[in-house]
Amino acid sequence: MLDIIPYTPLEVLAVIVEFLRPVLGAIAAVAVIDVVLLGLSAAGLGGSFRGFGRALGSALTVGAAVFLVALALLPAASDGSWGTVQGVTDLLAVTAGALGLGLGAAVAIYPPVQYLVGMASTPAAARR
């Protein structure tokens, strides 16, 4: 199956990294902050996992909103329009890109929301 694709996975990864290069610093900062907040929640310092369902629901709601906005705007980001999206392959590519952005937003926003919801559901005496 991979004989059909004219590019190796490493070449595809190089193109993706080149495309994301302007925002790699911000992505790394968000990832570090997310890991720290998840660690604090897991350790019970300042928060807990009591509000897991509410935090997950909030993160998925934000992810769904990002998916819808990305789905509407991705063709324009590549100097195209919905009129130039023709065929199943183009439609799947745009939808997959929007889905990836939505899931990425949900994953990025979950740790801060979990930390805040955990702080709200934990008594002040237990946080100390």
UniProtKB/TrEMBL annotation:
Alphabetized UniProt keyword annotations: Membrane, Transmembrane, Transmembrane helix
TM region positions: 20-43, 55-76, 91-110
Protein name: Colicin V production protein
Protein source organism: Halorhodospira neutriphila
Superkingdom, taxonomy of origin: Bacteria
